[in-house]
Amino acid sequence: MIKSIIIDDERLARSELRKLLKEHPEINVIEEAANADEGIEKIETFSPDLIFLDIQMPGKTGFDLLAELDKIPKVIFTTAYNEYALKAFEVNALDYLLKPIEPKRLSDAIHKVQDELAKERMGLHNSKGPLTDADQVFVKDGERCWFVKLSEVRLFESVGNYAKVFFSTNKPLVLKSLNALEERLDERTFFRANRKHIINVKWIEKIEPYFNGGLLVELKGGEKIEVSRRQTVKFKEMMSF
Predict the structure, then answer these.
(1) Domains of the chain: which residue ranges?
(2) Are 79 and 98 in contact (CB under 8 A)?
């Protein structure tokens, strides 16, 4: 069974979707929410596998909701606003359903969800505990939004109360401190190199000795990051057999 939550400000839309989902007994709708704040609360309480998410809601949008979550369930956007289609695909959601929802399109979207969840289960990915490089996070910077696999993130850099996230050619800012990120990330993959940087060790290209007994690490993206003297001992332990 796929635990699901419907998040939509229109009661009629929620009940219409519930009706359509009766044809899909593998989808277990455990909760509904009528706005983003209620949706966040229910996601954090019930940890669903999947959310059906309206984009345009009073107050916060569906994108705002995703930006406030640490761990993102699978997402199928449901909306009446066709202009958002491009944006939804830019963030790489599993699917995008235009209201009124066609049963065939819903069925296709659910098959995508089943495929994704099956892949994760084959990899025995544990949804509890720290965020691993198999997890996906949502990054929102101004009007731009991305779903990003943590395996694609090579570096986090502290910028005041924000952190800059380096993946591909993008470097958006998220409102999270490096300390808060360090608590959530799997220390076997993400290493606190110094006060300002957390590196993904799988992206390391080259390691050289540096001043004062520290190290200089070059990432595959070209960034050169100093591992402080204090962290070098820990780093060498971590990287050795």
Answers:
(1) 2-122, 136-239
(2) yes
pTM of the model: 0.78
Q: Residue 43 and residue 85: Cα distance in Å, rounded?
A: 24
Q: Could you tell me the CATH superfamily of domain 136-239? A: LytTr DNA-binding domain (2.40.50.1020)
**Three-state DSSP class for 173?**
strand
* Residue with the larger pLDDT of the pair 85 and 223: 223
> Both tokens of residue 108?
């296709």
User: In this predicted model, what pLDDT tens digit does every residue of 90-141 receive, in sequence order?
Assistant: 666 778 888 999 999 999 999 999 998 887 777 655 555 688 888 888 888 8
Biggest distance spanned by C-alpha atoms of the chain: 66
For residues 156 and 180, is the Cβ–Cβ distance under 8 A?
Answer: no
Q: What per-residue string of b and e applies to 186-210 under the rule 16 or more CB within 10 Å gives b?
A: eeebbbbbbebbbbbbebbeeeeeb
Spell out the CATH class of 2-122.
alpha beta
Measured from the Cβ of residue 147, the count of other Cβ atoms closer than 10 Å reads 16
pLDDT tens, position by position, 5-56: 999 999 999 999 999 999 999 999 999 999 999 999 999 999 999 999 999 9
